[in-house]
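Thread: "does anyone have the structure for this chain?"

Original post by V.I.:
We have the sequence but no experimental structure in hand. Need at least a predicted one for the grant figures.
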Amino acid sequence: MKMKHFLIHLPAPRRMLLSACLCLTVSLLNVCVAQTMPLSPYAQGDWKKLLETRGTGPLVVHFWGVTCGPCLSEMPQWGQWVAKDHGRVLFVQVDDVSQEITRNLAKKMKIDKAQNFFVRSKFDEFLRFEIDSKWSGEIPYTVTIDKTGVQKAYSGNTNFKTLQSWLKNNS
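Reply from O.Q.:
Generated one for you, tokens below.
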């Protein structure tokens, strides 16, 4: 018997119960499966806002670009880091590309469960200066902010063992 015919032959109260169970199952699946975080714009002044919403725990902010070879080579490691839930990590993609490209790469690199930003305007010295006045714009670039608010910046590929140690000392 086909499913359509099976449902028609059920008494109305059982059809309603079955329908409710199916809806509940779908809802629970949506909650249980990790949701992809929305892609948010990043503009001048947002660094201060990010720091204000940091809370009392440590925060890692990683700046990367879709046209940056070293960035792309290490992004799968960031995906593993995020999957292991090593604390709060934010990603800021700085290249002038479409949101779709950024979103697709974030998903491919498995960082889409973390909070992701795209630079809304050209990534220029104004944006860099408010993050770190000594930063010349090279990527990948990672900023750690400890539980007391002290920031430290790292250029180049991430040393995940060092990052793990830092996180352990700041949790």
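V.I.: this helps a lot. The domain at 39-170 is CATH 3.40.30.10 (Glutaredoxin).
O.Q.: and Residues 34 and 94 are 25 Å apart (CA to CA).
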